[in-house]
Amino acid sequence: MPRLMLSDEFWSKLEKILLQETIYNKRNLRMTVEGMLYRMRVGCSWRDLPKAFGSWNSIYKRFNAWSLSSKWGRIFKALIIDPDCEWGFIDGSYVKAHQHSAGAAGKKPQAIGKSRAGNTTKIHLVVDSYGLPIEFEITGGEVNDCSAAPGLIAKLPDAEVIVADKGYDSECIREHITKQGAKAVIPRKRNSLKGNADMDWGLYRCRHLVENAFARLKHYRAVATRYDKLKRNYESMVAMACGYLWLPM
After folding, report:
1. Residue 193 pLDDT
2. Residue 117 and residue 242: Cα distance in Å, rounded?
């Protein structure tokens, strides 16, 4: 029997949300979800799922259907209970795109782009004051952090402080944060004429919270390496991983 990820406590919390998403409560629903989580954790092919979870094809079809209707994204949001958004920490991280992730049908872009590491996808993540994920965006690896930042910042209307590294050093981003009534804690680059005299280095040291969140998410192999051809399926994998971090809360 493969190692399972859902304790009775976790499942009781997750099951209520699944039912709210009009997911039919079949007898094998728990093992179907366990199969999805197993694949997220070990990064195996769907065909290689242990038989203990049931038919791999049935599990994949349900995952694909939930992904198509953005159910995992809404489940992740439903699991976020009472986040501390006083401080918001933003960062981006590259994910290597496996060769099996290429070749999706159609001309629609699937968030796989060229970067220094080759074919990559990028996760742009926001965590709250406790280091728990509250927002994320998936783009191609060629997308600059500053390009994705405005969309994420706009989703943080209650944040009093937004913390990011030098990659987000842009007057446009600072103005965007200020317009929302928040304070930007972003170090300026060495060639900046304004310098860092007004920088809150004490708070900036807490930026490790978003880096720790990436480390926890990349503990799951299907997040650390992208195997999914479709952007929406990879987004669902990341949403599953983010939601799982909220289950003990």
Report:
1. 75
2. 25
